[in-house]
Write a structure and sequence with these properties.
Blueprint: E1 3-8, H1 12-23, E2 28-33, H2 42-45, H3 52-55, H4 58-65, E3 70-73, H5 84-90, E4 93-96, E5 102-103, E6 116-118, H6 119-126, E7 143-147, H7 151-161, H8 174-182, E8 187-191, H9 203-208, E9 215-219, H10 234-250, E10 260-265, E11 268-274, E12 281-290, E13 293-304, E14 307-310, E15 314-315, E16 324-325, E17 330-331, E18 337-339, E19 342-344, H11 347-350, H12 359-373, H13 382-391, H14 399-412, H15 425-430
Parallel strand pairs: 1-2, 1-4, 2-3, 4-19, 6-14, 7-8, 7-14, 8-10, 9-10
Antiparallel strand pairs: 5-15, 11-12, 12-13, 16-17, 18-19
Helix pairs in contact: 1-4, 1-12
Bound molecules: NADP nicotinamide-adenine-dinucleotide phosphate.
NADP nicotinamide-adenine-dinucleotide phosphate (NAP) binds next to helix 7.
């Protein structure tokens, strides 16, 4: 009998799992359930709009989606349109591929002031994610503080300082493009609570900061060590040496004609957001690194800024009836097995680290476990889900519908932009009428 698998979430980890399941010679049918009408998770809503090459991986996911054994159920929210218990009744296996859609909390005094955003929200806003279309950050500010020195912090900084020409061939949401272009911002401060060696960004992303048309990368030479010391893997050692070399090269970038600055502030731990209701600045404690950890020195300084973006990592949302490890922001599992026919892949399994390809082995593991655990399918699967959603009047967006939405986005693009994104669910559904 056909093994019926529901994958909840249509980002990379969901698609790699579908792909791994299809590679076996077992009789399997896969339904990918997605809360939004649009598929691909962070490829659409997280990867920076100027990193179009990275987004091309969606073409491979499309091939998977178009396989006979696969169906896409977009615009279906688990927990609202259908419950986990109902899915357990109709699927032989359920794969949680829901990622980590919210922010780790900054948790310092003043972090609730107007003008403080988490990067999940801020990135979602400039990427046209419907949940964040109304975020409306006030970019009428001269300086922005970005907390964290990972790739997301770099993405946020770059999008804020690139010129309209540099952003022309991107799919940044219209509302964000307008706000960024109108913004008088000249200075972005990136705060790393540890040093340049401990920074999490990767080298390609760091190097981009030295090649911007109108922006100077500024590092403090006295914060750059002579060499990379510490107990790193060979791979990490090489990455850190490259990063250090890149930061040294930043010291030679010609500032002529560059109207904006991105300041790399290491050994600097934000401890309080300053201001009345709105952000007016950030109080920062100077740190030193001791045994790999940031330790406060008791020396403080303030910077003025009108916006704070905390790019300190993402966090998953607990799923009804599924045990959640709130310390680590993941579901409770044994190498991906959650129990009761449920499996986890991607960030809800591992936490919010790694690049897109890091999700592939998770898919392989989940597929193997499902085939080990389920010898023959016993559940009704797709038809039962379709019937249930039909009775409830849920407007399911299938893959052909998504292709229509996407075609409308392509048709609406102007200039070199690859698409003009719909940024609300009603707009997306209206494109299907
Ligand atoms: P990340 O790489 O984990 O970086 C988080 C940063 O926030 C670190 O510098 C961390 O410092 C800092 N931080 C954490 N808690 C803090 C606190 N309470 N106060 C001050 N600083 C704090 O996370 P991310 O940038 O969100 O990226 C998530 C994943 O997506 C990463 O694997 C990343 O490489 C990937 N990604 C890749 C790309 C790309 O390839 N272009 C683009 C975007 C994202 P500590 O190290 O001291 O904890």
């Amino acid at each position: 009998m056909t093994i019926n698998v529901a994958i909840i979430g249509s980002g990379p980890s969901g698609f790699y799992t579908a792909d791994s399941l299809l590679k076996s010679d077992r009789d399997v049918q896969i339904d990918i359930i997605e809360r939004l009408p649009t598929p691909f998770g962070l490829i659409r809503g997280g990867v920076a709009p100027d990193h179009q090459t990275t987004k091309k991986v969606a073409k491979a996911y499309e091939k998977t989606a178009l396989k006979d054994a696969v169906a896409y159920f977009g615009n279906v929210e688990v927990g609202k349109d259908v419950t986990m218990d109902e899915l357990r009744d109709i699927y032989d296996a359920i794969v949680l591929a829901v990622g980590a859609p919210t922010d780790r909390k900054l948790g310092i005094p003043g972090a609730d002031k107007v003008g403080v955003f988490g990067s999940a929200d801020f990135v979602g806003w400039y990427n046209g994610h419907p949940d964040f279309t109304d975020l409306n950050p006030d970019l009428n500010v001269g300086a922005v503080a970005v907390v964290g020195v990972g790739n997301v912090a770099i993405d946020v900084s770059r999008v804020l300082v690139k010129t309209p020409a540099e952003m022309a061939a991107t799919d940044i949401a219209d509302h964000a493009a307008q706000a960024v272009q109108a913004s008088p911002v000249t200075d972005i401060y990136l705060f790393g609570r540890r040093g340049p060696i401990e920074a999490k960004f990767t080298n390609v992303e760091l190097r981009e900061m030295g090649k911007l048309e109108n922006c100077m990368p500024i590092v403090h030479p006295d914060q750059l060590p002579d060499e990379v010391t510490g107990d790193w893997s060979d791979r990490d050692q090489r990455l850190k040496e490259r990063n250090l070399a890149t930061m040294r090269e930043f010291l030679d970038v010609d500032p002529t004609g560059k109207g904006k600055n991105v300041h790399f502030e290491f050994f600097a731990n934000p401890v309080e957001v300053l201001g009345s209701d709105r952000v007016e600045g950030l109080r920062v404690e100077r740190t030193k690194v001791d045994g790999g950890r940031a330790v406060g020195t008791g020396e403080f300084f303030n910077i003025e800024c009108g916006l704070v973006v905390a790019a300190i990592g993402y966090y998953s949302i607990p799923i009804e009836d599924v045990p959640f490890d709130s310390d680590n922001g993941i579901v409770v599992h044994q190498d991906g097995r959650v129990g009761d026919g449920v499996y986890a892949v991607g960030w809800i399994k591992r936490g919010p680290t790694g690049v897109i390809g890091t999700n592939k082995p998770d898919g392989d593991t989940a597929a193997k476990q499902i085939f080990d655990d389920v010898s023959s399918g016993e559940k009704a699967g797709r038809d039962a889900l379709a019937a249930m959603l039909g009775e409830r009047g849920v407007r399911v967006v299938n893959y052909a519908d998504w292709q229509k939405i996407e075609a409308a986005e392509f048709a609406a693009a102007s200039g070199d932009a690859p698409r003009r994104k719909f940024v609300t669910v009603p707009e997306m559904l209206a494109a299907l009428e």
